Amino acid sequence: MIILDANNQVLGRLAAYAAKQALLGEKIEIVNSEKAVITGTKQNVLARYKAKRSRGDPFHGPFISRNPEALLRRTIRGMLPHKQAKGLAAYKRVHCHKGIPEVYNGKEFKTVKGTDVSKMSNLKFMTLGEVSKLLGGRL
To answer: Cα angle vertex 132, ends 45, 31, to 5°?
Structure first.
């Protein structure tokens, strides 16, 4: 089992790593999912996520959640062949959590190499929690 900490991690790179490990058979637990980072200006990021939510209709989908942990899990699903048996099995091995659950207190968390935003200067970004809040989600 791999426990990933999403704090200051770039969303796409974190999701790609989690998807690959899930396809290899590892169970993935991601904590602090509301602190994952989406790079880009605030206007571009919000426009992209609002377009995703407004696409389709409420009865037939696509169904995009507003919760940060569900948004992260949906991003990982996009990197898996989720319509095939191996992709569906891998998707079931991925779990995202808001904050750090009591079960994982005191355990060692892993971060994805080269994705820490705090070390990059002059970069515009938003956290997944901010995006969720602006879309109308509850934190």
So the answer is: 105
- Compute the CA torsion angle 35, 32, 90, 21 (nearest 10 deg): 80
Q: Domain map of the chain by residue range?
A: 2-135
- Report yes or no: 124 and 40 within 8 Å, Cβ to Cβ: yes
pLDDT digits (tens, 9 = 90+) for 90-114: 999 999 999 999 999 889 999 888 7
Amino acid code (one letter) for 78 = G
CATH fold of 2-135 reads Ribosomal Protein L13p; Chain: A; (3.90.1180)
Among residues of the chain, what percentage have pLDDT more than 70? 100
Q: How far apart are CA 90 and CA 27, in angstroms?
A: 8
